[in-house]
Amino acid sequence: MRALALDTASTQTVLALADLDEISGEVTLLASCQVDAPRQANQVLLARAALLLEEAGLVTGDVDAVAVGRGPGSFTGVRIGVATAKGIACGLGVALYGVSTLDSVAWRAWRAGVRGRLGVVADAMRKEVYPVRYELDDAGITRLDPDTVAKPAQVAQAWAGEEDDITLTGDGLLKYAEFFEGAPFAFAPEELWLPDGQSLVSAFAQAFATGKAGSGDAAALVPVYTRLSDAEENEQARLAKMTDPRDAQKRERLQREIERTDRAMRVSRPKSEGATEGAATYEPPFILAIESSCDETAAAVIDGGRDVLADCIASQIDFHKRFGGVVPEIASRKHTEAIVPTVMYTMEQAGLGFGDLSAVACTIGPGLVGALVVGVAFAKGLCFATGLPFIGVNHLEGHLYANRYVDPTLEPPFVALLVSGGHTMLVHVRGWGDYEVLGSTLDDAVGEAFDKVAKALELGYPGGPVLSRYAKDGDAKAIAFPRAMMHSGDLRFSLSGLKTAVITYINEQNKAGMSIDIPDLAASFTAAVVDVLVAKSLDACKQTGSCVLCIGGGVAANPDLREALAASLGKRGIRVIMPELSDCADNASMIASVGLDLFEAGERTGLDADPQAHMPLRTRE
Ligand code: KG4
Ligand code: ZN
Predict the structure, then answer these.
(1) What separation in Å is there between the alpha carbon of 374 and the centre of ligand 1?
(2) pTM, two decimal places
(3) I want to staple 358 with a disulfide (CB 3.0 to 4.6 A). Which of 285, 295, 302, 517 is the partner?
(4) Is 168 helix (H, G, I), strand (E, B) or coil?
């Protein structure tokens, strides 16, 4: 078996090519490299992999297995390696195996001649380490402990009680050597503290021989974390505190909710239902798109006429609901689990193989970096393996393009109102790919305001849909909330004042022992938001002389906003285009649509690209 092995769990990006004799277990290193690239694994990994293949006189098609370091280590670092490796393995159609990064560090010491008891202490950040002990003899290494995370002082104390001397290694020593001074500890030379190509390959050979490398299924491989996200730890602490018998019911409810939502994510396919049936014929180019900027793992395939062959979404929403909002660390973990099933299912729905595709597009920003990184690393790995062009897409441009599914003849110039959980802005679309931001929010995004108000009312997450259900039965004039910057004369927004006014209102009612009429409050709050959005949208059309307004983003699904825009702008002869409700939320077909235009314009993104949390819209100026 010819394996490409990589590990990005530490500050060192490690790569190796090796031949593994599956019967004798003998492993031969063909080429390897280590790059000191703290926080830059996503930029350097694939360029180095290409160099390595070249050095060994090989091409990607010669690789028949991929092995990846599963950590423990930096969460994002490990996910970059794991997601890239998943992309490569899927693209090549080969097995993906996992390797312990700590075992790899132990093998490095073994290769340098260390024998006897070895303690690896890898840096776990937050003043903690990942400690594991090994026994090294001439035959190899034997792991003595499972993966855990602990304070260095505790580790030193526990290990000091042993009879044997312990040689220490691992990058935790860079910060915590002082805890391990004196007998029974001795330090391995510092140049051995991180894994290298040879040690990674030795660890892989051992893991493979002992069945610890996994089944080879790329979908099933996950990083080693050793600890929950902070949000889940707090939840566990809350559960542990519910010891009062009166809390029994509450505790049970929470436990049931945890069990229910911890199970697999929902995968829906809004457009692919029946899409491949019937007489439809699809024309190349075929674009696969991937979206992972927030809490949905999505993939879609469209053809050259923008027809959707498949469009799948794995939603994490049930999971985040437990915490009242999107928890970035959980989102990143869920994307890592969902990326392979979502993409493979989408390809299956489309009835295509990777060889039929023309390019892979992927959201590259703006969004949660840790979440974006998973989609981007996977997509780049896939492109590396298949030779397909990689195309990075701006998420907001995707929301704009969703309008092309309503009216395929839509052509700029026009004005677009983008309203989502992270953005509130008016954009002058001068041409496809030529955008001028006319004004955006100075503080909160509209969706964020909906979410925070719903949270204050304990209505759960996300707030938009639940508040709009209540608003239907409420009186929009019941409570006078401020319309901030309504007459500011520019196209900027401010939502935090309104949010504070609503929350103050709720607190005052509660303090006075007065009940809150939720429908009235929801309707009054929504009206305050909608009035400003409508007035500014109208101003934007006037300013630019535009007679078309498009909308996009999750809040564009709000029925009051849709109705008010249609009525108010319609009256003034402005045509309002609104994506279907399911197309307002995050999805990948909108990303594919942007990807198609970029592909046809000859735009390509390098495999050294990294996601951008804040990414401006394109302009031609
Ligand atoms: O575009 P999106 O799915 O994700 C981001 O890119 O942020 O938008 C999600 C946001 C959430 O804040 C959610 O509360 C809001 O859109 N939202 C709504 C409605 N449906 C979703 N806000 C108001 N009314 C709705 N019906
Ligand atoms: Zn969005």
Answers:
(1) 22
(2) 0.95
(3) 285
(4) strand
